[in-house]
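Reproducibility note. Readers wishing to regenerate the assembly model reported in the main text can use the exact inputs given here. Chain order matters: entities are listed in the order in which they were concatenated for prediction.
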Amino acid sequence: MAPHVLSNAIVLLLLVAAGFALRFVRGNRMWRDALAQLWRRRRGSLLVIVAFLLVGLLDSVAWTGGQGQDALAAHEARTVIDRLFQGDREASYSAPLADAAFYGGDPLAAPGGHWLGTDILGRDVLHRTLKGARVALMIGGLTSLIAIPLALLFGISAGYFGRRIDDAIFFLISTLASIPSLLLLIALIMALGKGTWQVCLALGITSWVGLCRVTRGETLKLRELDYVQAARALGVSHGRILVRHILPNLMHLVIITFVLMFSQLVLSEAILAYLGIGVDGSWGEMIDQARNELSREPIIWWNIAAAGSAMFTLLLAVNYVGDSLRDILDPRTLRETP
Amino acid sequence: MLAFVVRRLLFGVAVVLGVLGILFVLFFQVASPDDIARRALGEKARPDSIEQWKANHGYDRPLWPWQDFEDNLLFHHYSTMLSFDFGASDVDGAPISQRIREGAGPSLALTVPAFAFGLGLAVLLGLFVAFFRETYIDTTGVFLCVLGMSVSILLYIIAGQYLVGKMLRWFPISGFDADPAVLLRFLALPVLISVLSGVGSDVRFYRTVFVEETGRDYVRTARSKGAGEVRVMIRHVLRNSLIPILTRVVLAIPFLFTGSLLLESFFGIPGLGSLTIDAISQNDFATLRVMVFVLSMLFIIGQIATDISYALVDPRVRLE
Amino acid sequence: MRQVWVAAALVGSLCVLAVGCNNNPYPEHDAELKVLYSAFSTPHRSLDPAEAYNVSAHRVTGLVYDTLLEYHFLKRPYTLIPGLAKQVPTAEPLEDGRVRYRFTLRPGVNFAPDPCFELGGAGRVTREATMEDVAYQLMRLADPALNVQVRDQFSNIQGFKQFHRALIERRGADPAFAALPAREQYAALGGVEGVRIEHPHALEITLHSPYPQILYWFAMEFTTPVAWEAVEYYDGEAGRERYADHPVGTGPFGIDVYDKRSRIVLDRNPHWYGLADPRAPGAHYPEEGAPGDAEAGLLDAAYVGRPLPFLDRVEFRLEKEGIPLFNKFLQGYYDSGGIIKESFDQVVQSERLSPEMAAREIRLQKAVSPGIFNLGFNMEDETLGVPAGDRGRKLRQAMSLAVDSEKWIELFLNGRGLPAQTPIPPVISGAPEGYLNPYRQVDLDRARALLVEAGYPDGIDPATGAPLKLTFDAYEVSSQSRPERQYFVDEWRKLGINVELSSTTYNEFQEKVDRGAYQIYFWGWSADYPDPENFLFLLSCAMRKSTTGGPNSANFCHPGFESLFNQMEVMEDGPERRAIIREMVAILEQERPWIEIFNGVGYSLAHGWLANVKPFGMSYPMTKYLDIDPVKRARVRLSWNEPVVWPVFAIAGMFVVGIIPGFRTFFRERQ
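Running the prediction on these inputs yields the following structure tokens for the assembly.
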């Protein structure tokens, strides 16, 4: 199957999942209230996140065909975002909204058409920045797809079953947590190889430990609660207790941790990009590529400014939303964890 | 109490062994000695020099005990690491222990002042913002903190070198020299950047701690007795917040030794951070292995120390 | 009251900070000395003259180790002059096709003082260098325990290969032998047959077949006299350094501080032979140069004939990043430097130095460097290489026609390069003159026509019905240089060929090389010595990566090319040899194992206080000819580096102004 078909299918799946999630939230008072409160407090940040999500989704829906900028483009699957920015490739740098090339002043293919200018190869910077949104969301999304199930599986079984299982899992997470995370990350990527999947896998392996600790601690407490004890006394199976009573009471922790983790992941990727083992097309890569352009005379600022501020805007919004979510959903458990 | 200490220590030893196990799998199983040899010798290396090199570095043994119980890399790895016999760099054959000793100084010269200034500034600003809680200063302060946390360290370094080093010419753009006449000059800019980039999350944390503390009964009592707000903040709030502050400090101390990977690399400070970055960029697995091990050890020791001191202070901890 | 004190302390410390600011990276007490400040970008792996093989390491070893022959500082084309040798030897052909060279060593050549010489007798700190030391180093080149990257180039010496093999065999068979010091092992095997010491100052080298280029190797540190005491003493045991980190030589400078991850300091060697014998060709400033040198001030009467070296000390500092390095050069803290591409337009305007730079008395020099950068195809690949026969050849020709190197040079080098036509850079004498490679002139129409002939009309691979898919391996490419590779991919897109830029780690790439699974790569080569052979050997069968692990990553092996190469290799420069080179180039033109991209043009900058700068190009430092005016330098540096302090006060002011309303609100609400 061609990669773009898979990507389209995933988008569809995500949309369906989002629909279900929305229905669930509307039916559940606690979540509905929380969301309403969040909307009241952090409307701007939420809108920013939604906008980035939208861009990410639009950049994941692709199909082949149609006229492209060159012979090859017609055979390639291009996304909605790609199709918005086609046919105006320049020779090299041009400033935002400029009519002429930055050096030499030759007329452009699309005068005034590049809102954020073009880079050294004449690619539209806005286009690259928007494509970076998908990469950032992919890093966050894929990583949590790996980290959250791992953390839940291990955290719940350690907390719920206790004893040997707890000892083993506690040992494992203590060991992983003892290795400085950036070094472990780098070592993993050097071992696994380069690429989006590898980076996400490595990030997943290094970041599940924190969440696992939290879920383990919380499960320990939940296990002792009266209604869980009652259910056990009534002979309800472990699986049922876990799914019915434990898991739902952990969801808010998972969501908060995930949101707070997201910005860490994107920032880590930027460091990896500097080390040359990041993800292709990420904002980190753009920043690293553009950092020397600051020394050009006259200065080329739009590349680094675009990538830097896109990353900054998304992270700022995510951090704000994460903070508020923490205050709303859980004023206690996560307070002490820095 | 003794039982607790013994148990904690034993667990620490087990974790060290676990870390070594992970390192072994990553650096011997996944990245094979052949790769390491080729990398060390350069692209033009011939097969016979690769074999020779592997023999010189002891990488020609079989990996696992079931292949050769007497002489295998797994046992060799554990025994050399645990006896702190770190061997030589894969790239240039220099002894790694000596490298680490040489690198610790420059790293600490950067991280200790950065940490001290950062801590002082963060506590001061945290108090300051908590003092003005629920005013525009608080809102602006928190906004600035979140803002600071959302910027990549790469951007801090790039902007710092550009503005302070090039435009304002306050300090050298980069470099390092142990000569005391110039050492401070070299450290000023990386310390400044390190403090600025880390202060956001710290201030936010301390602010939360302080604000929580100001809501407690004893603070209200003190206030009702007519103590001034400044006095309350410093005498009561700060003093009672010492435990969370200390926890954060103790957990941060092992990282002082790691240096700061990116800062050292950008500023050319020959510390442990740039040693690690160099090891990464040159695929010097021996050095990388040792660095990960040493840093993990420091971290584990720090944690044990924290746990035991808590247990000394608070007997309830022992029961857990 | 307390707040006032805090504020006062804050302002006070800011003032102290503002006044104490200083961006001079060197201690003030060095300001009046003739110290040359220079930079290196990565720690040197080895400074052992048998192992060091890159420009950066040679800039250090070249100062510490003298060579038997040297290059003339000014003359171009490159000319060899005697260094430690009394004269440049000539080849003496022997009856059976062998060739002999006789070197005579100057008397009174001493090693720099070092504690290692105690090994040769208590209380000794130095000794005279003899031909034994050169022979010792030649044997070290054959030693498999050392990572000698140029071993093949010496294999023309009679008995060299046999000596290498004998060492491997004896060491494998006899552990007692392997435990002996290397020097005793060499002696036990009787040395290399073709290296004979007639007397301590005369050395005879016999080659089993002619190899005129051998003389150039005697102008490189690989053949310097090496003291066995230093090799044995600095063994890395018991707190002693390794020889690779502690060079001991006869050169004009000796290492004083070697902190490889931060700085390297070299001081004058008080025992240098040139101090006692300033009339030796390598010990004084030359009287004659190339045309134009007099106008460029390189034959200044103040220097001509004066004994070398002029500098007191040479310091290298580690600078990993180009931008800080360049900015420090602009601040006057490095004496010379290259131009980073980002700052090019600030420095050079319409091929001349910008007025701003000229006003600072900075000088610009350009020189075509003897090196080449090229794209290569793996000739063993099923689609691109020899197995694809004529289809593969046409495909390579088409791809070669699509790559516009002029624009690449413009974008990524600010035009500092020449579009390459052949593997041989035009500065090398013997390179085809006035030759334009028809496949290196962009012609998309012809490329498309060739694609049709190759069976890929519009880039469509008939086997799949989709655009032809190829992989371009960019291993270990930083995100910084990724666009440089992306450019080529975009060029091939125009033909409808889908080349995927695959960024891999070094290990992944090596694995691909082992499996022969790479298709296209980008690579560069810089001359060891100025001879076409040093470039054409990169395409010879004996250097194939797949079979020998050699530098011929294209795995090109063409019978016609090979036999011409074997003829050319042993010939002296002349019309006959040039004709053969022409023929070889014609084969490459059709076969296209490479797409030649560019020969670099080095633009180097030097400050006004640095005298006698002439770009050299090859990996051989000319530092001993440089001179510095330290008084002028100290004065200028101060005037360029006045710190700007007002922002400190501005920020402090803004902070104070920002919190005043807070105090007011606060006191209104709470008290």
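We highlight two features of this model. Chain A has a mean pLDDT of 85. Chain A touches chain C through 32 residues (CB under 8 Å).
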